[in-house]
């Protein structure tokens, strides 16, 4: 089970997705930890068993155990943070922006891999989850760490493709 398995499962109407998911593993702007970490984090963010199994199989041997754990941790912590901070951003009452979150987020400070790579995984997951406040915060941290616009954009491309493939495969399963 790999990206090729996901490609072959996509229907003909999703030909562009077949091409895009096929090109993810050929991405050269990111190193393997960054690329496969973003892919795995996004797979966990979409939560589809087929996506998780196939992306995990694709990443096996390309990610250290620490990087795989950090990718999963990014998906987990962003599942919480993206809902909280998106809500704070969307609520008209600015009082909520001044209140402490009072949510534990220790993994962000000690992710077990480079802070920049964890931020990149978190950026990709925040794109999947649609939190503009988190996207801005992670992008600022990535810029401070010296990441280029092209590297940051690559994480967003990965997020968009993994999310779209999950949506199509889930819809096809529902239609069957």
> Can you identify the CATH superfamily?
AhpD-like
Share of residues in helices: over 70%
Tell me the structural class: mainly alpha
Spans of at least 5 consecutive residues with low confidence:
none
In CATH, the architecture is: Up-down Bundle
Strand residue content:
under 5%
Main sheet overview: none
**In CATH terms, what is the fold-level topology?**
AhpD-like
Oligomer: single chain
State the helix count. 10
What's the gyration radius in Å?
Answer: 16 Å
Our count of domains comes out at: 1
* Helix and strand pattern: HHHHHHHHHH
Mean pLDDT comes to 96
Strand element count: 0
- The first-to-last residue Cα distance is 21 Å
Global outline: globular
Organism: Henriciella mobilis
Active site: 131 (proton donor), 134 (cysteine sulfenic acid (-soh) intermediate)
Protein name: Alkyl hydroperoxide reductase AhpD
GO molecular function: disulfide oxidoreductase activity; hydroperoxide reductase activity; peroxiredoxin activity
Describe this structure in words.
The protein has helices spanning 3-9, 15-24, 32-46, 49-59, 65-90, 95-98, 106-109, 115-129, 132-144, 149-175. With 176 residues, it is mainly alpha-helical. It has one domain (3-175): AhpD-like (Up-down Bundle). Helix 3 (32-46) packs parallel to helix 8. The longest helix has 27 residues, at 149-175. It starts with a helix and ends with a helix.
């Amino acid at each position: 089970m790999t990206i090729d398995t996901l490609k072959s499962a996509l229907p003909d109407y999703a030909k562009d997705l077949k091409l895009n998911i096929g090109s993810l593993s050929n991405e050269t702007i990111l190193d393997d930890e960054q690329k496969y970490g973003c892919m795995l984090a996004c797979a966990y963010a979409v939560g589809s068993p087929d996506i998780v199994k196939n992306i995990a199989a694709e990443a096996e041997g390309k990610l250290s155990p620490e990087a795989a754990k950090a990718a999963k941790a990014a998906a987990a912590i962003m599942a919480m943070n993206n809902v909280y901070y998106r809500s704070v951003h969307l609520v008209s009452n600015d009082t909520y922006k001044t209140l402490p979150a009072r949510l534990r987020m220790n993994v962000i400070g000690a992710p077990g891999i480079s802070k920049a790579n964890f931020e990149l995984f978190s950026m990709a997951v925040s794109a999947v989850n649609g939190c503009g406040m988190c996207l801005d915060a992670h992008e600022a941290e990535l810029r401070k760490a010296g990441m280029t616009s092209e590297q940051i954009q690559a994480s967003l491309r990965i997020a968009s493709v993994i999310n779209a493939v999950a949506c199509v495969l889930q819809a096809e399963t529902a239609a069957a």
